[in-house]
Amino acid sequence: MSKRPFPWEDRPKDAVDPIWRYSLNPVMKRNPTSKLSQVYNSSLVPYEDGYIGIFRAEPRDLITKIFLGRSKDGLTFDLDEEPIHFVYEDGRMDDSQYQYDPRLIKIGGTYYIVYCDDFANLASISIGYTKDFKTFIKLAHPFPPDSRNGVLFPQKINGEYLMLYRIADSAAAGDIYLARSKDLRYWGEYSLLMKRTPYGWGKKKIGGGCTPILTKEGWLLIYHGVMDTCNGLIYSIGGAILDKDDPSIVKYRSKAYLLRPERSYETTGHVGNVCFPCSALVDEETGRLAIYYGASDDCICLGFSTIDILLDYIKNN
Amino acid sequence: MSKRPFPWEDRPKDAVDPIWRYSLNPVMKRNPTSKLSQVYNSSLVPYEDGYIGIFRAEPRDLITKIFLGRSKDGLTFDLDEEPIHFVYEDGRMDDSQYQYDPRLIKIGGTYYIVYCDDFANLASISIGYTKDFKTFIKLAHPFPPDSRNGVLFPQKINGEYLMLYRIADSAAAGDIYLARSKDLRYWGEYSLLMKRTPYGWGKKKIGGGCTPILTKEGWLLIYHGVMDTCNGLIYSIGGAILDKDDPSIVKYRSKAYLLRPERSYETTGHVGNVCFPCSALVDEETGRLAIYYGASDDCICLGFSTIDILLDYIKNN
Amino acid sequence: MSKRPFPWEDRPKDAVDPIWRYSLNPVMKRNPTSKLSQVYNSSLVPYEDGYIGIFRAEPRDLITKIFLGRSKDGLTFDLDEEPIHFVYEDGRMDDSQYQYDPRLIKIGGTYYIVYCDDFANLASISIGYTKDFKTFIKLAHPFPPDSRNGVLFPQKINGEYLMLYRIADSAAAGDIYLARSKDLRYWGEYSLLMKRTPYGWGKKKIGGGCTPILTKEGWLLIYHGVMDTCNGLIYSIGGAILDKDDPSIVKYRSKAYLLRPERSYETTGHVGNVCFPCSALVDEETGRLAIYYGASDDCICLGFSTIDILLDYIKNN
Amino acid sequence: MSKRPFPWEDRPKDAVDPIWRYSLNPVMKRNPTSKLSQVYNSSLVPYEDGYIGIFRAEPRDLITKIFLGRSKDGLTFDLDEEPIHFVYEDGRMDDSQYQYDPRLIKIGGTYYIVYCDDFANLASISIGYTKDFKTFIKLAHPFPPDSRNGVLFPQKINGEYLMLYRIADSAAAGDIYLARSKDLRYWGEYSLLMKRTPYGWGKKKIGGGCTPILTKEGWLLIYHGVMDTCNGLIYSIGGAILDKDDPSIVKYRSKAYLLRPERSYETTGHVGNVCFPCSALVDEETGRLAIYYGASDDCICLGFSTIDILLDYIKNN
Amino acid sequence: MSKRPFPWEDRPKDAVDPIWRYSLNPVMKRNPTSKLSQVYNSSLVPYEDGYIGIFRAEPRDLITKIFLGRSKDGLTFDLDEEPIHFVYEDGRMDDSQYQYDPRLIKIGGTYYIVYCDDFANLASISIGYTKDFKTFIKLAHPFPPDSRNGVLFPQKINGEYLMLYRIADSAAAGDIYLARSKDLRYWGEYSLLMKRTPYGWGKKKIGGGCTPILTKEGWLLIYHGVMDTCNGLIYSIGGAILDKDDPSIVKYRSKAYLLRPERSYETTGHVGNVCFPCSALVDEETGRLAIYYGASDDCICLGFSTIDILLDYIKNN
Amino acid sequence: MSKRPFPWEDRPKDAVDPIWRYSLNPVMKRNPTSKLSQVYNSSLVPYEDGYIGIFRAEPRDLITKIFLGRSKDGLTFDLDEEPIHFVYEDGRMDDSQYQYDPRLIKIGGTYYIVYCDDFANLASISIGYTKDFKTFIKLAHPFPPDSRNGVLFPQKINGEYLMLYRIADSAAAGDIYLARSKDLRYWGEYSLLMKRTPYGWGKKKIGGGCTPILTKEGWLLIYHGVMDTCNGLIYSIGGAILDKDDPSIVKYRSKAYLLRPERSYETTGHVGNVCFPCSALVDEETGRLAIYYGASDDCICLGFSTIDILLDYIKNN
Q1: Where would a tag sit more exposed on chain E, N or C end, judged by fewer CB atoms within 10 A?
Q2: Which residues pair with A237 in a beta bridge?
Q3: Chain D residues whose beta carbon lies within 8 Å of the beta carbon of residue C267
Q4: Quick one: closest CA in D to B269, which residue?
Q5: Do F232 and A231 touch (CB under 8 A)?
Q6: How far is it, in rounded angstroms, from Cα A297 to Cα A224?
Q7: What is the DSSP letter of C290?
């Protein structure tokens, strides 16, 4: 990893939040190509001498798909022309009409893509995987429809995979659950992990964001929270720390948000007032974090922080 | 089973539906005891020289619970004074606040109770079991919340348990899915089994009813369908036949209902216009069926038919 | 018409409403045949030595259709086995999925059927006609979708056909409009005829009922009004008198209903609390009226009155 | 009071609820006169050698008004032909369009009528009074609009009048508050008295019923609770005991209902599944209670109990 | 037309959409006069040596009206001080309270204004006309209320006028219908022209925009589509080509939008995220198009394209 | 007051509205301190040689509180670190979870704070007071829950305090009522003051704003009005003049708004399209007004006008 450039800017002196914005945000703007209208909630992991990622993007029909993309520096991106096409393990072609909010996770030699697509016309968490970024396999609906915001832990814990899970659209939807599996195909032992707060930035709903990051304090969870106002929803970024060995235990959860929409590219656009985190790169040596978040469902933005700053802020707020 | 009396009445000549009503319906009326206000959607299986069942009943606070009950003849019932108390496999007490719509299924030497209770304030399919009807064990949430109308097949098929599954309360809820499991604890490979119909008695929602019955034509499914009118919902009973070896294949599905609310005990009461089937007894020799259905969320009713009549009706309507 | 029997019962002494019920109501009950579940909102006119009518009925799939039926006495009915099939004037088959609430009107030698069916999945007023009750022709959508409760005047007035018109399902729907046409195919000059009342039995919506009856006082309108309660809608029957030469002038409109749901066959059933008038037979010599109304979307009922009683009641209440 | 007949029937042996029904219910049926369609939620107090009461009744336009009525025996009633007309204290005529759910309370030599009418098109608690049942005075809106179910305590406590208060129609409406006043004209010091229950017969809303009855255990509160089902609301009767000196203290509150809709005149009608208590007569010597409740917004019913039975039931359930 | 200046800018090299924006947009900004707060969805046609138009504008009470305006160059506008006042053909004054979204069409020597106003408190398509821009006549409601987005074809086809028609506010509203008339006064033969798309920029509703333009390929339709997001609606511009002789035949329909809100004057304002086309000027010789669209219900914007570019784009996307 | 600086800028020549914006708006921006995310709807009065105010502000959990703040010049502010903590008069601690939209009024030697907080989970008008800005007392709920936008007149009129009152959240909420009290603790004699308008900037709701200002023409009311659009609500500022001696008489009410959201800090932000006035400073000698209004629930803005300009504008528009 030594040669791979890590995207970074030092914290500005006037920063008030524990995550600070890249000075050249957005890193990918509206109309990035003549075929794509917008690219936003996206997820990167280190790959070869740079990064590889899965990008939520909308062609000019505004039907959301996910695209493979590559980056040398984590700041500029080269996306495929065509969206990813999945096949089921038994060879059937995937016939979903849309795909969105991918999270890319490497476990062993396999790259998993946890995302949302349509299942009998309802949003549903799907799991795909690839080993070569050429063939993309999709599991046969391991989750029921009307589910969303799946985020997979990057390793088995006590012999089980763990997934953050949320109901998609029911009036009662809005809390984060934990699901468990031995094989990624059959899931059970659902439990409630974190509820919405009665007031404040996460009172309407909360949901998974970046792949959890293992730290000395436990699993660092960078997630999103939603507040409803008389003029719509506001998506902010929050943080929590889960127990290392039993992530169903929430050790700390910050009452304060880590970042919320403030800049014009965050408050206006396709869906204004949205900061939606989908992945974070970690510089193991320094603990630096490069957090990719979609802004206004219109563009990709980058925020910086460090593991220590976030752990400290979450514990004290 | 020779000595066990099977509840039965022959078909009246003026019957127009393939299921005909017991002439002394309801078999269990409002205020069956001084402690219970109503007993309705309930499920019986043969047991010893009579029957044993799990009954949905509401004490005088009208908070729904499930009770154990016994019957010599399938026509009169003796219910326990106290509702069933479950414990989790790890010994924790179940703290759900309500339970409803139980289905009782014997697989091997174990009696499984698939029912609905509250999980983080949302309706959720739960699985309990007992071997002695004294201790009742509950699995640790094998399904996510906001699920309902779970109906378990009475045997493994190709090494997997199968469960009819439905989303509970989302605006998009209303179709029947199939879920699969190797161990009843982890479920996956969800698939859409049957959709609501665009018009008619099942246009609002459909959901599982009796435990599927294996016949020469395949699995006989007695389920419920719901129609919405300007003055509320109407719950009717419908039928379908699933492939014996691959129950995800719907071989026949009757466009006509099998029974719908008509009598005053079905059209008025706690929740009027409800016929809700939860179990059917089968007389193996004759193919006779005694179908228990809750009426108006107020009482237990009994309908009769035979396997041949239902198979024939479903195939021709 | 001399030989044709007119259905009739004298007014009972204890009658409190200006329309009194037939003592043997309903004249057609649930499950009238083994193929039909219910017959209700229906419309009759004199024909040969008896009556002919178009009946709203639902087969056992509960998808509403309209059927031709005949009656010798106006009290018993003989319905066709198959629903009416329309063809467009250009020969195309009608592909609507449901039809309901027909009104049958004879103008010249032609019998017109004004009813509601689906047009691009929305309820829509349709106009059909027949001369022989064998071939049924349907005009090419003379009204836009989302319309309902069309009632055609039985003659041209000042060279124009007149139709009572109502928006079907919008939140703003609920008032009766008048539409005009020279040829039944193109309609215009829409005007508001009667609004809902702020309170009382017609506060939620009102809509056309029987074909208007020409009297010495003007057009006698027997229509329906709907009240909403916390437990659903109540459909009652009301009356108004329109100017003979300019029916857009409402001369009288009764604040009191003429009939409302009271009997068990009116308050409970498929859709409880519904009295819905669709046609009235007039005995020209005596002014006697036989008013057919659907009850609870389940059965056909008959009420009696006279033109004088209704005119008097409407003018004084 | 010795000569005044008290309506009464002994408890039947098969009674399961602490309130038992009068065997000749309803005491006042639909269409009690040719001018009134229904009389229901009504309130009586002893007067001269019989009883006097304020009755909610709907003329044949179904616009609810309140009427004065008298009874010799508490079982048969003689209602005025015209509804009550109020004048404001400054002489202005009351111009409200509807009035409903009256409670009649005698304090000192004055009879107060606490009821609901329209204030700027919104439901609002109003207070009227009379000394002679000829002139009816109305206070100038002592409460804001969107309030309902006002029930006045029959005496001042610690120098203050007390009123049960409820928000009328907001999504958040449904709990009972207590308001205080020194003069009935200005109200303040609002406090929450009882909340809805999370489940059961009072989970949707609760609201005041009869005027509180002072007993040795405190104030006996006979109130109503509402449960929502997929087919509408169910109104039941509940009970609680408030501290004698500080009625903001709830000493006991029964989890079980005291009575709920079961008979056909309670489950079907204008608004089915409604038992709504508005007043109770007390036989001081014996503690007997004659509880008047409206059934299905269609008729007046009578239930019996005794103070001891209710106190005992409320304390033990 | 030779001397009339045509508003134009060549396509910028970095343009990605087939319609490109005028570099000095908006051409008419907020608060254009001290009496008007905003001017937006407006429609121009050539007139004398310049252009004349009907402008949707809101005075400082924000009640929408339509105003007459003139322009020499299509880039600057001179609006009347007072809104247009219509009279009915029979001389009655128009008493509608608001008017909006006008389309101005010249047929023969008459200028027609198809727009929306209130009819019995509901939005309704109205048709007005003028020959001299001094007297404005309004037809007597040729369409029922709850209709909107009427767009008239600029000539009769097969002896009939054609109008794009849409239901206004029903939950089911959102598709474009075609209505036909021989005289503009009576309309019939409604048919479905184009449905919303299941996903993408037109999934919530679609509706008429500019007057259809006759090209060698057929009628070029520049219309609007609406997408719903969790933070409101997005109005984009789309294109289709209808058959020349039978415009009920959709030959091509672009899956990609032609323009969507991106600039700050389009994404924020009175109603953010709105690009709403109301008219297009055609330069017959060159095929150049100047498309006027309202942005954010706040200002008038101008986009350019050519007939060839649009035809080509619609056929290929 | 002579030495106290009055915030002021002369009217720009291009101003079109009767209130003009401070050229350096907002006077308090997002993230004013590292602890506060936003400060907006706030209220100032003269105090000592400067001003004192109560500020609505949200810490980084976005749970709204009110803070005490001071200003020398009315342009820059120094806020306390901790929010205001109230105690009830009987010494109990206030346990409300949020507080918002304060109005500060000096009557005699006491400073009253009329604001909104939560009462049994519902918004409720509360009244607090302080004499020293160190101890803050709160009255025991003088108003029922589900109330909002309380604005107290700055003096008794005819022996009574007057309060503008509004229902908070009911579907029927949106008009301004007047309530009266002799002691601020008990309120009554509610009356309707001003209704929403059928169309325009105040058609959805209206509510109190600044403390009424006594002028030669009567009470100058600077209030807010809300319009709903398909993309959310728009909050504008309006004006009215109430009779000096009987403020229930509305002498003038401007159909035109006084100011509405136009600048980017008003149209976008936490809740876009909001101008919400909470207080106005008056320069007695000159009649100058400095009007503080929250913009977009994100920042404090300042507008200027004079009493004469506003009176004149309200009377003429």
Answers
A1: N
A2: A224, A259
A3: 268-269, 272
A4: D267
A5: yes
A6: 14
A7: E
**C-alpha of F201 from chain center:** 18
Report the chain C residue with the minimal C-alpha distance to residue E144.
C190
Position A1 scores a pLDDT of: 45
Per-residue burial over F224-261, b if 16 or more Cβ lie within 10 Å, else e, is bbbbebebbbbbbbbbbbbeeeebeebebbbbbbbbbb
Strands F86-88 and F136-138: parallel
Q: Poorest-confidence range of C3-7, C222-226, C235-239?
A: C3-7
E146-194 pLDDT, tens digit per residue, is: 999 999 999 999 999 999 999 987 667 899 999 999 999 999 999 999 9
Nearest C-alpha neighbor of F296 from the set F261, F266, F259, F264: F266
| Residue B158 in contact with partner chain D when CB distance is under 8 A | no
Helical (H) or strand (E) element with B311: helix B307-316
Distance to chain E for F4, nearest Cα, Å? 35
Cβ separation E61–F264 shorter than 8 A: no
B170 has pLDDT over 80: no
Q: What percent of chain D has pLDDT over 90?
A: 97
Strand ranges of the sheet holding B36-47, from the earlier edge strand across to the other edge: B36-47, B50-59, B65-71, B78-79
For E17, how many CA atoms within 13 A lie in the half-sphere containing its CB?
23
The CA–CA distances, whole Å, from D183 to A234, D180, F180 equal: 48, 9, 14
The residue among B191, B231, B209 whose CA lies nearest residue B292 is B209
Cα–Cα dist A205/A169, whole Å: 11
Facing residue for F62 by CB, picked from A227, A268, A272: A227
* Percent share of chain C, pLDDT over 90: 97
pLDDT in tens, B43-62: 999 999 999 999 999 999 99
ipTM comes to 0.95
- Tell me the shortest Cα–Cα distance from D282 to chain B, in angstroms: 26
Angle at F18 between CA F15 and CA F19, to 5 degrees: 85
Instruction: Determine the Cα–Cα distance for residues B73 and B44; give it in Å rounded to an integer.
Output: 11
* 3-class secondary structure, D314: helix
Peptide bond into E26 cis (omega under 30): yes
Number of H helices and number of E strands within chain F? 2, 22
Task: Round to whole Å and give the CA distance between F72 and F84.
Answer: 21
The enclosing H or E element of E132 equals none
Q: What's the pLDDT at E1?
A: 45
Cβ–Cβ below 8 Å for C272 and D272: yes
Contact D257 B98 (CB under 8 A): no
Nearest CA in chain D to C13: D34
- Contact residues on chain C for D274, CB-CB shorter than 8 A: 231
Which chains sit next to F, with 3 or more Cβ pairs under 8 A? A, D, E
User: Could you tell me which of F280, F231, F282 has the C-alpha nearest to residue F259?
Assistant: F280
Half-sphere exposure at residue B152, Cβ-oriented, CA atoms within 13 angstroms: 31
Domain ranges of chain F: 31-316
**Which residues neighbour C248 within 8 Å (Cβ) at sequence distance 6 or greater?**
C178, C191, C193, C242
C29 touches chain B (CB under 8 A): no
Q: Which residues lie below 8 Å from residue E56, measured CB to CB, with a gap of 6+?
A: E39, E40, E41, E42, E64, E65, E66, E99, E100, E101, E102, E278, E294
Element (H, E) at F307: helix F307-316
F197 three-state secondary structure: coil
Contact A269, E267 (CB under 8 A): yes
Chains C and A touch (3+ CB pairs under 8 A): no
- Classified by CATH at the fold level, domain C31-316 comes out as Tachylectin-2; Chain A (2.115.10)
Query: How far is Cα F102 from Cα F125, in angstroms, rounded to an integer?
Result: 10
